[in-house]
Amino acid sequence: MTDLVVTEDKIIERILTMELVRVTERAAVASAKLRGRGNEKAADQAAVDAMRRELNKLPIDGTIVIGEGERDEAPMLYIGEKVGTKKGPKVDIAVDPLEGTTLCAKDMPGSIAVMAMAQAGTLLYAPDVYMDKIAIGPGYPKGIVDLDAPVEDNIHALARAKGVKANEITALVMDRPRHADLIAKLRALGCSIRLITDGDVVGVIQCAETAKTGIDIYLGIGGAPEGVLAAGALRCVGGQMQGRLILDTPEKVARAATMGVKEPKKKYDLLDLASGDTVVAATGVTDGALLKGVKFSGDIIETETIVYRSLTGTVRRILGEHRELTKFHLD
Ligand code: VTB
User: Fold this and answer.
1) What is the predicted pLDDT for the residue at 1?
2) Which residue numbers in the chain have pLDDT < 70?
């Protein structure tokens, strides 16, 4: 199912797959302690601190390619920051220490701690701008939907391939005013629309698990960093995705250019977003469709983590039981 286009030199040490679990677990636990406190910044900072501490213990020579922002606006996990012990392979790291900060601050479903690791130079250096995205799950002919095709054509093509009517297709869309036109078109087709308030990393992943989630297609505009993280997971399960950065001001075009984006209007395919052996790990912070949130029960802290590895197509779910007595949260 997975696309084995990765050359030998792009394979990362598989032991690192398991190492990512600790990183997202700890970020999730740290932010979960601030669930429902109405303080997005504090919850995010807790996740950032914990993630950075754990990343720096890994035997990697890592560079943050997607992080908390540029150096001047983010003191930690900024784009370009070096992480790890430096005694190991050169890798790209993409992080969203707390994806869905609002969800966490309001104790609503769907916030996660998520990161991706891949061989250096294989993840898109996406600036923190919007990305127009389209994604479907595995099992469809390649190119059946296209970011530039009218939404009606995409839905009809997908419905035909699935052997259903257009009004039996379910699309996942972020509930934003910018999607009014898209939503109206989907409504006119009679599609079912699952609207989400935040968290489109999971949103994209959900369209690859149609049998479980009922979602056939992800459509609309979300964050570009989230797009790259989701692409890493889709590479593993074998779906299709396209994305285009929304660089609608000369400043954004210039900033993207400094990050290596030469064609501002380029339509990125899954393999442009994540071309190497990519590992993605996510731990639930609040309960959600993909993962259970962190559970505090007495001295025991329970976590659920999912890890995707594109090279092998392996998806692992890891339940953790952590004991605070062992100073889990300390160095
Ligand atoms: C999404 C979503 C995030 O930002 O990418 C979105 O995954 C995009 O930005 O959880 P807007 O909120 O401006 O629409 C989040 O909602 C928050 O980071």
Assistant:
1) 43
2) 1-11, 325-331
- What's the topology of domain 130-273? D-Maltodextrin-Binding Protein; domain 2 (3.40.190)
How many CB atoms within 10 Å of residue 287? 16
Q: From CA 293, how far away is CA 330, in angstroms rounded? A: 21
**Which amino acid is located at 307 in the chain?**
V
Q: Best of 31, 179, 200 to mutate for ligand 1, by most ligand atoms within 8 A of CB?
A: 200
Q: What does the block give as tokens for 142?
A: 């390649």
Among the CATH numbers 3.40.50.10540, 3.30.540.10, 3.40.50.10490, 3.50.50.60, which is that of 8-123+278-330? 3.30.540.10
* Closest atom of ligand 1 to CA, residue 100: 10
220 lines ligand 1 (CB under 6 A): no
pLDDT of amino acid 210: 94
pLDDT on residue 15: 83
Domain ranges in the chain? 8-123+278-330, 130-273
Cα of 59 vs centre of ligand 1, distance in Å, is: 32
Minimum-distance ligand 1 atom for the alpha carbon of 96:
18
Question: 22 C-alpha to center of ligand 1: Å?
Answer: 25
Output the six-digit token pair for 180.
């009014």
Q: Can you read off the two tokens belonging to residue 294?
A: 């962190």
How does pLDDT run across 84-106, given as a tens digit for each residue?
A: 999 999 999 999 999 999 999 99
**What's the 289 CA to ligand 1 centre distance in angstroms?**
17
What is the CA(201)–ligand 1 centre distance, in A? Answer: 9
Spatial separation of the C-alpha atoms in residues 288 and 30, rounded to whole Å: 17
Judge if pTM exceeds 0.85: yes
Quick: pLDDT tens for 313-329: 999 999 999 987 555 55
